[in-house]
Design a protein that fits this description.
268 residues; alpha/beta; six-stranded parallel β-sheet; two-stranded parallel ribbon; 45% helix
Length: 268
């Protein structure tokens, strides 16, 4: 899954793809580099980010989705709003990626159920302005799994089918670095829930902090792509269904390496 942030303020590439035509070209480039899905979002969810209006989000994402769909691209929409999800699917989106798992907009599960498209239910404890204060766990893997399971049950009760559901542990969302590493190591336990698993580690703060300079200065987001590759390979080998990344080409290679490794292991 390649990322197209149609925003001026996303954490790793804010503004680079904010222009509609540039965003469309970038989406097409990601497909040429090996993306199976292009994830188009019009609202930053970086820590501390303020929400944009409904109309602004629609204006950002719908034209880009429509244009990419016209080129045969499999598009997902990254949104927490039911109205944006409906408009995006009408424009050609084939998956709804909701980082709030239906908590930000109670109408979202019913909207997705009506479309029939796959639905990413992410673990989430609150909006960006205060999510860091919610990063408190005794056993993060167990608690994330339990909270995700409850969200899935509620989504199913609203009419979404099991076949539509994809789960995401929400790395970086109300998680500190130790929580993120524990969740990555816990991918096999999360996969036991029985749903495809999406992992979004690309360029996140915990990678920059792991690779910090000797004086403690975190590595910039744009220089953590090699670490993202390592996470991609390990996550794919551990059973992730999809990885959401900014630099598609090398990550697509990493997925192929992990797949070959698993095949070889299965044959020995």
């Amino acid at each position: 899954m390649g990322v197209v942030n149609v925003t001026p303020d996303s954490f790793s590439d804010g503004g680079r793809w904010f222009d509609e035509d540039v965003a469309i070209r970038h989406g097409l480039d990601l497909v040429r580099e090996g993306a199976d899905i292009v994830d188009v979002g019009g609202e930053s969810t970086r820590p501390g980010a303020a929400r944009v209006s409904l109309q602004e989000e629609l204006a950002r994402v719908v034209p880009v989705i429509r244009a990419l769909d016209a080129e045969g691209v499999r598009v997902s929409v990254d949104t927490m709003r039911a109205e944006v999800a409906r408009a995006a699917v009408e424009a050609g989106a084939r998956l709804v990626n909701d980082v709030s798992g239906g908590l930000a907009d109670p109408d979202m599960p019913r909207a997705v159920a009506a479309t029939g498209v796959p639905y990413v239910v992410m673990h989430w404890r609150g909006h960006s302005h205060d999510m860091d204060s919610r990063a408190v766990y005794a056993d993060v893997v167990t608690e994330v799994r339990e909270e995700l399971s409850k969200r899935v049950d509620l989504v199913l009760a609203e009419g979404v089918t099991e076949e539509q559901i994809v789960i995401d542990p929400g790395l970086g969302f109300a998680k500190n670095a130790d929580h993120n590493w524990a969740l990555l190591a816990g991918i096999p336990k999360l996969a036991e829930m029985g749903f495809p698993l999406l992992v979004g580690a690309s360029r996140k703060r915990f990678l920059g902090r792991l690779l910090a300079d000797p004086d403690g200065t975190p590595r910039p987001f744009s220089r953590s792509d090699d670490a993202t590759l390592a996470v991609t390979a390990l996550a794919a080998h551990a059973g992730a269904w999809c990885v959401r990344v900014h630099e598609v080409g090398p990550n697509a290679d990493a997925v192929r390496v992990a797949a070959a490794w698993k095949r070889a292991g299965a044959n020995t």
